[in-house]
Amino acid sequence: METRNSLPLTMKIWLGAMMAANLSSLFFIKNHVAARWVLGALIVGHAWIAVLEASGTYTVQGGQVSLGHFIVWAPAIYALYRYRSEIRLPSAYGFWACAMFFFYGVSLVFDFRDAFIWIGSQLA
């Protein structure tokens, strides 16, 4: 939690907006498979970090979180792509799905870099 508190304000705003977008999947899970995958990715992604942090025996590093994003977000991104025919603008689901593509896309650009820096540090 200390790490999150020390983040720059712009990063806190980004993470807050991304969390709101992820949680908004709750509005669409009844009718859209992709929304279920997004919610599942959110739950699994936060659960594994919470378990590791709660164990007290392991310190999670940034690159590991980035690598985890690739693992847990990949099925959600695939589901959004697979069911893209359901994305119609202007509709609430269409705007939400486009927002999720945007958030995942931008975040993964930075995660890609951080994950490979961490992997490189582990191989050195």
Topology record:
Elements: H1 2-5, H2 9-23, H3 33-55, H4 62-82, H5 92-123
Helix pairs in contact: 3-4, 4-5
Radius of gyration: 15 Å
N-to-C SSE string, H for helix and E for strand: HHHHH
Q: What is the distance, rounded to the nearest whole angstrom, between the alpha carbons of the first and last residues?
A: 29 Å
Unreliable segments of 5+ consecutive residues: none
| Topology, number of strands | 0
Q: Which outline best applies? A: elongated
Q: In terms of structural class, how would the helical and strand content be classed? A: mainly alpha
- The overall pLDDT average reads 89
What is the domain tally? 1
Largest sheet report: none
Helix content: over 70%
Number of helical elements: 5
Strand portion: under 5%
In short:
The chain has 124 residues and is mainly α.
How would you characterize the overall build of this protein?
The chain is 77% helix and 0% strand. Helix 3 packs antiparallel against helix 4 (62-82) and helix 4 (62-82) runs antiparallel to helix 5 (92-123). It has one domain. With 124 residues, it is mostly helical. The chain crosses the membrane at residues 12-29, 34-51, 63-81, 93-110. Keywords: Membrane, Transmembrane, Transmembrane helix.
